[in-house]
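Sequence in, structure out. Go.
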Amino acid sequence: MPAIIYLLFFTIYPTIYIWYMSFTEYSINFVKFIGLENYAFLFFRDTIFRVCLQNTFYYVLLAVGLEIPLGLGLALLLNREFKGKNIVLCIIMLPMILPPVVVALTFRMLYDPTLGLINYFLSFINIRGFTWLADPKLALPAVVLIDVWQWTPFVTLIILSGLQYLPLEILEAATIDGASKLQLFKYITFPLLKRLIFLTLIFRIVDAFKAFENIFITTRGGPGYATQTLNVYAFLTSFNYFHFGTGAALALIMVFINIILVTMLVKIIRGEA
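Output:
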């Protein structure tokens, strides 16, 4: 009964209510049913929505595209015995356990154009400092770097757990037959880890798609709309401009895009099985 009550009040009811809100002009003063008008406005008349959609896909592709190979490389390096391995593993996992707000605030200080450590170290090699979060060309990659720093350890941890359960007899037989390390990875290790990597990819795509703290705290979606993703746009639309119906529609659009992406990846995984 407690579980059913929890589902009703914290999952099912909010889901139904956000669907209802997306079909209304919902503000502080009144509620008016308008059907699909919010969706029509977003897809056909709202130019900001298109920019935010583009930023979201750029963020997800760049962040996940860096995290998967970096996490795989770190996992391969850690999948061997060496002195101080446990200490190194703890240090690498540290970013993942830090609160996202703390990470975002820390990077906001690091990116400071006058007092930030990043520009300070760049000055040692005669590189003039950048206005990381104020430059429209640099702001989104700078925010992506925060995500990569914090969540690459997550990818490393999952892939490392898969590496440690690979069948050793197959690897040993291939080594005896004269296979090089590159051949072992290409023909044995990677094919055996492929489904696990796809699963990690799904987790990271879903999580990166709803990234909020590191963007909102560092740039609030600026400069202009350079770092404004769908999640940030939904928040600003709802709680800054009080267009709750449009914000609800944005949230549901994000859900549908996630469902489509995950469904495609699951079909790929099943096709590889």
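Check: DSSP finds twelve helices and two strands in the chain. The chain has a mean pLDDT of 91.
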